[in-house]
């Protein structure tokens, strides 16, 4: 604990706003509308390796190696960090298999446009909090996340109106979550019942991932692919590398399966920072996936959880309608209620005369 406090005190005095901007990827390089090839990226990485690492990169390497010592104090430390430094720390934590709710929530920044939590221990609660903070996300990778369900993806779609690329699947649990999310991606009108047009005017009667254009789901089943192609043609699934684009559209680099979203943020960091923990990140091939299937009991449990979360708003709406009907019936049938109404009308009439 004493070591963690010493590191915390040192980090608060560290200025990470300068010198690192030169090696931080710009928005244009991350979200270029034109097709970028992996060969070009590898060339850029080779050119980058010829330069000596900056002082900030070395400091971030030290932070990454001692990340377990500062997690408890991360909410206090991260306040002084600029957005790109927070992203770099999150990327290091993911590579060290230490990315969880306690890490990603204090690091999340309102200016983030990408989020890579693939293979992490982030849960629904963590993703919901991040979605409420990072409302300008354009690409997110939730593949191989065993603790994320469709309920948190629903909140993500609701808050992140600029989301264009969603990466999912990679393991049986994540494949099941992706399948449950199909209803969130399709255009849908809500069954909204209100007592007046004034109340209906303030309610959104439709919801869907309207901005989503690219879905990376390596082992998508044929039925899901057919549903998306028929009912949601605006979404392109698993685009292929081609000089002519995909279906006449320029494919952003974050939509390719072999792209690691947060790779550009750690290109200046020594790989020994996360290799020391026995984990070296490798691109996930579309053909690689765990052969283990979810048990029948687990599938039923997940289906019940998803159904309960989906029907919760409807139950609340029905409860409100029932309460309003009960109030109206009480007003119509109760003598006491009629007396209160008549007294109120007489009072208004007397005030109007005066």
UniProtKB/TrEMBL annotation:
InterPro entries: LRR_dom_sf. SUPFAM superfamilies: RNI-like. This is RNI-like superfamily protein. It comes from Salix viminalis (Common osier).
